[in-house]
Amino acid sequence: MNFRFILNIFGRVLILLGLFMLTSIIWALVYNEEVVEELLVSSLITLVSGAGMYLLTFRNLKKELGLKDSYFTVTFTWVIISLFGTLPYLLTGAIPSVVDAVFETVSGFTTTGSSILVDLESLPKSVLFWRSLTHWIGGMGIIVLVVAILPLLRIGGYNLFKNEASGISYEKLTPKTASTAKRLWGIYVSLTFILMGLLLLGDMSFFDAMNHAFSTMSTGGFSPRNTSLGGYSSYVQYVVILFMFLAGMNFYLHYHFVKGRFRRVFSNLELRTYFGIVMAVTIGVAVIIYREGGIGIEKAIRDALFQVVSIITTTGFATYDYLSWPQEAWTLIFMLMFVGACVGSTGGGVKVIRHVVSFRNVTLHFSRMLHPNSVKRLKINGEIIDDEKVGSLVSFLVLYLLTFTIGSIIMVLLGEDTLTAVGSVAANMGGVGPGIGSVGPASSYAHIHETGKIVLSFLMLIGRLELTTVLILFTSLFWER
Amino acid sequence: MNFRFILNIFGRVLILLGLFMLTSIIWALVYNEEVVEELLVSSLITLVSGAGMYLLTFRNLKKELGLKDSYFTVTFTWVIISLFGTLPYLLTGAIPSVVDAVFETVSGFTTTGSSILVDLESLPKSVLFWRSLTHWIGGMGIIVLVVAILPLLRIGGYNLFKNEASGISYEKLTPKTASTAKRLWGIYVSLTFILMGLLLLGDMSFFDAMNHAFSTMSTGGFSPRNTSLGGYSSYVQYVVILFMFLAGMNFYLHYHFVKGRFRRVFSNLELRTYFGIVMAVTIGVAVIIYREGGIGIEKAIRDALFQVVSIITTTGFATYDYLSWPQEAWTLIFMLMFVGACVGSTGGGVKVIRHVVSFRNVTLHFSRMLHPNSVKRLKINGEIIDDEKVGSLVSFLVLYLLTFTIGSIIMVLLGEDTLTAVGSVAANMGGVGPGIGSVGPASSYAHIHETGKIVLSFLMLIGRLELTTVLILFTSLFWER
Ligand SMILES: [K+]
Ligand SMILES: [K+]
Fold it and tell me: Which of A71, A366, A398 sits opposite B475 (nearest CB)?
């Protein structure tokens, strides 16, 4: 493997990270918080480490990454930023425990949003800003990953399954993919600022607006408020619902939309399915909670819609503790954790398109049962999905279930009750954040066993990087020769 | 569709069923029970209905079944025997409610073993015999299904996935498949009698030995005793463990074994995996329950082994209420419900070979990630599994999960708690019988909502007939033209 270049990349990433970290100092100055020095030291450690790695390796650099290098680089980029990202928490004392700080940072960069913090509002705002910023950086990372690092454009023109990622030469990226990445970043940043503006029009402070905009567009879910978005006006909640939905869409579709290609957007099968699921489950949940009584129709629909969109997009914001709803309602919510957002979005999880392909494959199978000699093929958005791709999709689903199962067993063995075990694993693998059992939206992950926190951090990483990118590092195949 | 021939087949099946039913009268006479008349009437209704269907259709019969006819015939054979099979319960008053009687009979013929009966020992022995007999008949039906009706011999010489069942002409079956079916029936019957003999050598009565032999070899799980096998000696329990394990094996392997082809048996990948899972989970459970204290090593191992074999083979016998074990132990037991026995056995569920293929497919996928141009293929027992077959396997897994999910949602909507909902659906789709929550081995299904019982009966049928055989009847594709 080309470790020289890999280290060089890590160096560049850390320099970028250090610069981002510096911005949190602004808030320490604005709010007159006594953590300026600690944040400065954090940034400098990160910057100096990054610069060191860069300077050590920039000479005689062969800018080429093989397949193995790519998988390794992607996984360890997230690991390394998660380690340096703990510095602001640890040095300011906002989170004294190393395991907790790693958990919170991994949760940030993977845009999961699980938190070990109980009283957010007692923390320095600069640290809370850093916390939300990790989400936003993570979201940018995912966009570059989907567009540039896993660039095989298969179904509907996007690399859906990311399985057969061909050899990536770093130079090759420059002309087309880099410009696409920039466009999609442009959309990401623009939507963030539009959302911020809309939140400011509501009753939100500048600080809260910025934080929530970061968490929404990255489908992260950290809030600087103890009550998440529960304490805000219905206007704010509707705005956040809309932008969570947008963040869960394929960003290419936003691009097409901006370019006026409306038919291409509205005919997209994944988008239609995603919208359909949101509508169907919202109606189901709204009916259940309305029939419980005590709330009006508008509130029932708003609460249901907010939670459904929040969970399917894997954002994980809460306006209401869904676990206090009737069991039928939160069971539906829990099942959404296995649906996930659209491919090419900042959301995590299994993703809608995989469900669509699985379902279409079942239909094809029925058709083959009746007409064994037919040569019917699977088509999605006009492109053929061959059996090999379906096989790859299976691998993903099987690995997802296997990881979910093993994760749940481990959590049970660590002493968590079944619902908490299953809920925490589903919520963290899926990048959602709040789960069920004792890790619901009204609770935190503070009480989870230390080993459990490490397991969940690992699951966040696996889920965020589409499983195989990380898991392949644990195969003997990867390390042979 | 050739309804004339289908009706003719149903006629024959009902005549056979009526004859089986007659044998329960023997026990009414032996034990001097006042249900002879009712059992006689039940048998006669069945015999006359069968004869009527046969006589109506036997002239000018075109003995040919298309694909649609086959799927329809298989599904409705189970439906029809389940309807006529309720007569002994209903007419003797042993089970007064029609829904309960249908549930118990479907549970019998699908070899599931879920029961709505609470006090078995208060019922006439002749009725209990009929109950166990439904298992045994169901097991025979499954063998003929696997060997003759779904005869595409693909992986390792057996029709593993049953997906592309080619057109079946009834005559075609006669020469080879019918003789194979007879051989496997021979093994099934022989093993049943050997087991009966071994149980008689223990402290078991002739009646109990026969009933338990029926339930064991069919992996059914009905017992005529309230305490299932809990009240018997450890000798009896070990014998039952061995024969449950044998019943969960591919019956072709028994045939090879009898023919002295030992290498073929012991090198079989599915058998090795099946054995490996049993050993691994038994050790895990034994350690957990031994550490709880209060029992010796032998008892811990025996209880663990009994439960593990009982659940993985989908028999569902109990010597102990596993729900009273620590949560870690019964979580493992619950997960076994998704493993299932071997293909070609009388057991139900997903089946070990499907897990093996899924897992191998993941390995292949990793290999393709590293070597995108390799032409490596999936091989099981020396035979290539192509991508299309993997695609079919996916359909099965996706349908299994989908059915499980929808089933669980329905059970939750019917008011069951989450564990009971999930447990009852898993246990009945998987053909296991006892689940978790309020339908554990120490409870029954008596308290489940009436609609829930119908849903679970339907799930037993779907699970037993490998999902697609039943579900294809609900596609528009099946009914078009
Ligand atoms: K999230
Ligand atoms: K069973």
Answer: A366
Comparing C-alpha atoms, which of B336, B337, B360, B340 is closest to residue B350? B340
Ligand nearest to the CA of A219: 1
* SS3 state of residue B215: helix
What's chain A's length in residues? 481
Give the span between the Cα atoms of A167 and B166, in whole angstroms: 42
Ligand nearest the Cα of residue A216 is 1
DSSP secondary-structure letter at A158?
Answer: B
| ipTM for this model | 0.84
3-state helix, strand, coil in chain A (%, to 5): 65, 0, 30
Q: Give the three-state DSSP class for B113.
A: coil
Question: Residue B168 carries which DSSP code?
Answer: E
Residue A56 has pLDDT above 60, yes or no: yes
In this complex, the residue of B328, B387, B392 whose CB is nearest that of residue A365 is B392
Nearest chain B CA: its distance from A164 CA (Å): 5
> By three-state DSSP, how is residue B432 classified?
coil
Task: Quick: pLDDT tens for B350-376.
Answer: 989 888 888 888 888 888 778 777 777
Distance, in Å, from the CA atom of B144 to the CA atom of B138, rounded to the nearest integer, reads 10
Task: Give the C-alpha separation, B200 to B187, whole Å.
Answer: 20
Closest by CA to A81, choosing from A135, A5, A157, is A135
B30-39, B308-317, B382-391: the lowest-pLDDT one: B382-391
Considering only alpha carbons, which residue of chain B is nearest residue A67?
B370
Closest alpha carbon to A478 in A126, A94, A117, A70: A70
Tell me how far apart the alpha carbons of residues B336 and B265 are, in angstroms, rounded to a whole number: 23
Structure tokens at A393: 């999709």
Q: Where are the alpha helices (DSSP H) in A218-349?
A: 234-247, 251-258, 262-266, 269-291, 297-312, 327-336
Instruction: Write out pLDDT tens, residues A217-266.
Output: 999 999 999 988 988 999 999 999 999 999 999 888 898 899 888 988 89
Residues in Cβ contact with A176 at an 8 Å cutoff, skipping those fewer than 6 apart: none
Is the CB of residue A469 less than 8 Å from the CB of residue A75? Answer: yes
Collapsing DSSP to helix, strand or coil, A378 comes out as strand
Q: Look at residues B230, B401, B436, B191 and name the one whose alpha carbon lies nearest to residue B318.
A: B230
Q: Look up residue A290 and give its amino acid.
A: Y
Q: Which helix (H) or strand (E) holds B384?
A: strand B383-385
Count each helix (H run) and each strand (E run) in chain A, helices first.
Answer: 21, 4
| Cβ neighbours of residue A407 closer than 8 Å, sequence gap 6 or more | A425, A429, A455, A459
Mutate to test the interface with A, among B166, B362, B373, B436 (most CBs of A within 10 A): B362
In the chain, the amino acid numbered B239 is V
Q: Distance between CA B342 and CA A100 in Å, rounded?
A: 45
Residues A209, A210, A216: CA angle, nearest 5 degrees = 85
Domain ranges (residues) in chain B: 3-247
User: What is the Cα–Cα distance from A213 to B94, expressed in whole angstroms?
Assistant: 66
Please judge whether B359 and A71 are an interchain contact, meaning their C-beta atoms are less than 8 angstroms apart: no
- Six-digit token pair at B81? 């025997």
**Residues written for chain B:** 481
